[in-house]
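Entry
Fold in token form

___
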Amino acid sequence: VFLHLQLFGTIVWILVASTRVPLPLLQGWVMFVAVTAWFLSIVFLSVFLFGYANRIALNWNQADFIFHGATFVFYFGAFLLQAATTSLHHFPRKFNSTAQERILTGHEYNISIAASIFAFATAVCYGFSTALALRRWRL
């Protein structure tokens, strides 16, 4: 599941960064969640790979559940914001302007759709990882 989380999260990060970011408040949060989740997942994996988990007295199953559960909530929210940005495709960029420039061009609209799909896939992976962590924690 970890490889899917990293791969899909990286794709979301790249897709959102490749647009003009017409709505910085919405897509800025999506970028923040994608980058932070990607980085913290790498740190979390490194703790286990390099054996620091044995040196730190912590209930790692509970920490795993809390981390993935919180990340699932944030990523699902990021997916909703990215989908909301995509849905505003037909609105004009400036409401008082006579130019008919839209918020997203056709190419950016397609990129935004892909970013929404991959953000949803990443949220599903984090949800699945949360369920597995809960199962490990309860056992």
Notes: The two ends are 20 Å apart (CA to CA). Helices lie at 2-17, 24-49, 52-55, 60-87, 106-138. The first helix runs from residue 2 to 17.
